[in-house]
Amino acid sequence: MQLIGLSVTNFRSLAHVRDIPIRKQTILTGHNDCGKTATLDALAFLLGERDIRESDISHFAIGETGRSALPSLDAEEQPRAVTVEGKFEISAAEAELLNATSPVRVRRRFVEGEGVHLEWEARVPENLELRGLQALKATELRQLASDLAITLRLDQPNVRASWLEVLEDHAATGPRVTDWVTAPIVLKDALPQLLYFKGDAAESPEVVVRSILTAKLREYTLDETTRQKITALEDEFSAQLKDDADLLRKLVVERCAFDEFTLEPQIQFKPSVSSVSLAASARGQHPVPLSAAGAGRSRRITLALWEASQQLLSEAAENSTGGGVIIVYDEPDTHLDYDHQRRVMEMIKASAKGAHSTVVVATHSLNLIDGVDIQDIVHLNSRDGRAHVQSLGGDDNDAETRRFLSNMATSLGFRNSVLLHEKCFIGVEGATEYAALPALFKLAFGYPIQSAGIALWSCGGNDGALNFAKFLKEHHRTVKFMVDADSLRDKNKEFNLDRLRRQGFAESDCLFIGTPNELEDVFGNVQWADTMNAMWPRDDELQWSPAEVEELRAEGKFSKNLHTLIRQHSSHVPRSKEDMVVALTHMLRGPSDVPASLISIFETAMKIASNAGQGYWPEGD
C-alpha cells in the first residue's frame, strides 16, 4: 500500500487539515510550531505506532461547532475526537486480497470515552445489522437470521459457519452504500510499517537500532507459517484468560446490578526489540559503551545506521507481502554541518527509490529543501494557532510557484551562508540563461540543477558579481562560468573573456555554449519554427518554416537575424531576442528535446560539482 494523501482533524495544531500530498519523497517545511512534527506523529497514529495522549487533542476540539468527524450532538455532550485519514494506492494483489479498488481510504479515530477504531471506506450493506457479521457469535447470527426470516439451506448443518454463509449471501444481494466501517484484519496487516527517526536520536544510536530491528522483526511475522504460530498462541492465551475474564464479568454484574455486561479480551502479540547494547572501540583501545562515548561518535554511528537501514528495509519491502515501509525523519539535519546534510539527502533519495518505500522528512535545512523537486515540498504555516498546508501540483503556473517560494523564503529565512557553503558556483551571462538553463537541465535529467550541487547565478555586466566570484575563488571555492562561444572573440560583449581574466579567471574556467556563437544556435530549425508559429504567428497567416530559420544561419548573428525576421512579419514580436530562448524552453516536452551539446555541457558541470568540496564524512567530525 502506497500512501498518497493524509488528512488530520483535531490533532494538536492540525485542527482540520485536508489532503496533504504524500509523494515517494516528501519534504515538510515551515517555521517552528507550524505542524511539521505533528504531521509525522499523526501519521504514526494512523499506522498504529503511537497512542493518543491528552496533549495531542487539539484545543480547537473544545466548544467549537461544525467540527469534522464528530457526532452531531449538543456541544456539552460531544466527545473530543481525533481523526487521521490516509489515502492509499494499492497493487493488483492487494486489490484482490481486500476486494477493493485503488485508491483506498483508511482512518484511525480516537473518540473520548470510546477508544481507538481503525476503519476504512468500503461498499457495505445498507442494513447496519448486516455489517460486521464475522464478529458475531453463533447465537447472534441465528437470532439475526430469524429476525430477517432467513433459514438454512437443506444441505447445511446447523453450525455458525452455515448461518454466517446465508447471512453473507443475503447481504450481497441487498442494497449497498459507501460508508466507514471497521477495517478487516487483512487490511490492518497490509498497512505499511513505519520507521521513525528523530533528530535528537543522533545522540542515541540504541534507539535507531531498536527501531530498525523491530521493523524487521514485524516483517518476519508476516510469513504465513509464523503468522499461524502467532495466531495459535493468541488463541491459546485467549482460552486461558476466558475463565478469568468471566469471573471479572460476573463480579461487575454483581457489584453494579447490570442485567448484562460483556467482557471479551482480544489478545494480539506485536513483537518488538525491547533493548540493545552497543559498544565501540578505536584501534588499539578497549570497547566503550556508546552511553559513555562522546556525542560525535554517537552521531557518526547514527548516520551510518540510517544509511544502512535503507538497504535493509528496501530489500525486505520488495519481497514482502506486507504494505511496504514509510521512513520518517524529523529534523535529520539537527547538529549536522553542510556536507553531512548532503549525505543525508543522498540517503533519503536512495530510500525513496524502493518500489514499496516512501520517505517523509520534516526539516528546516535549505540544503535538503533545494535538493528535491518543488512538487515534493509541502509547506506548512500557522495562522491563529492552526496549521495550514501549501504545496505545488504539476500544473501550477509560474505565479503560484513564485508565491509559494516567497512564502517559504519568508518563513525559513534564506541566509548568505547558503551561498558560502554551496559546492560549486556557475555564473551565467544574464537573465535569459538564468531562466532557461535550470528548466533545460531539469527537462534533461529529471531533477533540479541544485540537486547536482550546482548554484547557478546571473552575472551579466555586473562587476560586483564578478568581484564576488573572485572572492569565492580566493577562498578555495569552485567557480565556473557558462558563456556564449563568441565571448572568446567579441570584445563588445558585456560578459567577455577579457573581463573574466581581469578578475583572475582563465579560459579553462569557462564552459562555452553555442555553435558558432551563442545559446540560440544550439536549438534546431524545427524547434524554432514550432515556437514561432505558437508564440509569434505571422500576420499574413502563413506558417513559419524550418527552411526560413535555416537561411538565417548563413551569415551574421543568428539570434539577431531571427528576432529581426519575427519583428518584420509579426505583430506579436518578443520584447527582446533574449526572451525568445525562454519561450522556446517552455515549448519543450521531454529529455530528447534538449540539444545534445547542452546535455554535454551539463554533464561536464555535474562532474565538476561532484569533485568539488568534501564528498565523505571525516572520522574526526
Strand order of the largest sheet: 2-1-4-5-6-7
Radius of gyration: 32 Å
Low-confidence stretches: 63-75, 316-321, 408-420, 614-621
The amount of helix comes to 40-55%
Main structural class: alpha/beta
Shape: elongated
Number of helices: 20
Strand segment tally: 18
> What is the average of the pLDDT values?
79
- For the terminal residues, how far apart are their CA atoms? 39 Å
Range of strand content: 15-25%
For the report, how would you describe the main beta sheet? 6 strands, antiparallel
Give an overview of the whole structure:
The protein is an alpha/beta fold and 621 residues long. 40% of the residues lie in helices and 18% in strands. The strands form four sheets. Strands 2-1-4-5-6-7 form a six-stranded antiparallel beta sheet, with helices on one face. Strands 8-11-12-3-13-14 form a six-stranded mixed beta sheet, with helices on both faces. Strand 15, helix 13 and strand 16 form a beta-alpha-beta unit. Helix 3 packs across helix 4 and helix 6 runs parallel beside helix 8. The protein is elongated, with a radius of gyration of 32 Å.
